[in-house]
Amino acid sequence: MISEFQDTLISANEAFPLRHLDNSNYENILEHLDSGIMLFDSEGFLTFINVQMAKLLELPRQQLLGCNVLQLVQHPYISRFKKKKILRIYRETIFHRKRYHELLDEYGKHWLITMTYGDQMDGNFLLSVKDVSDFKQIEQTAYQNDKLAMLGQISASIAHEIRNPLTAIRGFIQLLRPHLLQLGKDEYAKIILTEIDRANDIIYEFLNSSKPSAPQKTVIPIQSLLKEIVLLTESEGLMNGCEIQLNNDLTPLYVSIDIKQIKQVMLNIVKNAMDAMDPVGEDYSGIIQIATHEEQSHVIISIKDNGHGMDNNTLVRLFDPFFTTKETGTGLGLSVSYRIIKNHGGTIDVHSKLGEGTTFNISLPLV
């Protein structure tokens, strides 16, 4: 029985002979990984670096091989920003013994840093760097959707709990109104009923804002809606020292949208852009540029301003419900806009830097 099994193994090896890769083949594989790789020996000197890592450091590999961490942070051709990141990675992975570390670079990309060391590395330290920006975007989108769904549930619950007592109060005021009329106090009843109706309107607006209704779509050229947006906002813009410029694609781009909802989104972003203008002296002139172009069966609407911009902490929370940087803001405008565009099968994203202005890009499917 054993001999038959051995014969089977021998014949299998002959039919499928094992191939052994030499060291040059392994190095060739590491060279072309999409992750950046650095290998330090037990004395802390860089012995291997692949093409991707050299691109990230923006230096030829020949200038990096043989350097230690101190020499890297003192290298004259490595930017100050990258030197600070190298020191931070060294502190987190070596001193604090963290095998995984995340960082955000100067271009807004997310990177996952992995440090491998120990007995299996024979005293060497392997550092790998991988771009995880796409995964972060998916994670943030899922998180945003969860928060918006929770906001809708809370809003519906609040509306229900407040509307019931308001309805009862309104009914009793109606019953008391003839007695108030006899006392010559009918104006009191009118004021109470008016205020109750106003409270109901506020609840309805809040509920509709946190959970927009299904879009009632109409096919229109997007250019006509944007012209209307400019007409509605240009007078307010002039009062704020801001010029609104419209650069439409010459070819009519037809979309199927709920006109009221998309108008709400556009007006919200344009007014936010006006608020972002930070006048400096009499020569300052705020500019908001609205432009459209076609891209892969979608129309891209960009709204760009030259305001004071936003930092990364603000950008991360920009579409969060109730998050606002304004003293009188509710923090619902952009979260509602996000939901409306999503309900239309589109996307909305924003790019901004402090002192360089902000650009919103809205993508909607063409008819």
TrEMBL record:
<dbReference type="InterPro" id="IPR005467">
    <property type="entry name" value="His_kinase_dom"/>
</dbReference>
<keyword id="KW-0418">Kinase</keyword>
<dbReference type="InterPro" id="IPR036097">
    <property type="entry name" value="HisK_dim/P_sf"/>
</dbReference>
<dbReference type="InterPro" id="IPR036890">
    <property type="entry name" value="HATPase_C_sf"/>
</dbReference>
<dbReference type="Pfam" id="PF00512">
    <property type="entry name" value="HisKA"/>
</dbReference>
<protein>
    <recommendedName>
        <fullName>histidine kinase</fullName>
        <ecNumber>2.7.13.3</ecNumber>
    </recommendedName>
</protein>
<feature type="domain" description="PAS">
    <location>
        <begin position="22"/>
        <end position="76"/>
    </location>
</feature>
<dbReference type="Pfam" id="PF00989">
    <property type="entry name" value="PAS"/>
</dbReference>
<feature type="domain" description="Histidine kinase">
    <location>
        <begin position="157"/>
        <end position="367"/>
    </location>
</feature>
<dbReference type="InterPro" id="IPR003661">
    <property type="entry name" value="HisK_dim/P_dom"/>
</dbReference>
<dbReference type="InterPro" id="IPR003594">
    <property type="entry name" value="HATPase_dom"/>
</dbReference>
<keyword id="KW-0902">Two-component regulatory system</keyword>
<dbReference type="InterPro" id="IPR035965">
    <property type="entry name" value="PAS-like_dom_sf"/>
</dbReference>
<keyword id="KW-0808">Transferase</keyword>
<keyword id="KW-0067">ATP-binding</keyword>
<dbReference type="InterPro" id="IPR004358">
    <property type="entry name" value="Sig_transdc_His_kin-like_C"/>
</dbReference>
<dbReference type="InterPro" id="IPR000014">
    <property type="entry name" value="PAS"/>
</dbReference>
<keyword id="KW-0597">Phosphoprotein</keyword>
<keyword id="KW-0547">Nucleotide-binding</keyword>
<dbReference type="InterPro" id="IPR013767">
    <property type="entry name" value="PAS_fold"/>
</dbReference>
<dbReference type="Pfam" id="PF02518">
    <property type="entry name" value="HATPase_c"/>
</dbReference>
<dbReference type="GO" id="GO:0005524">
    <property type="term" value="F:ATP binding"/>
</dbReference>
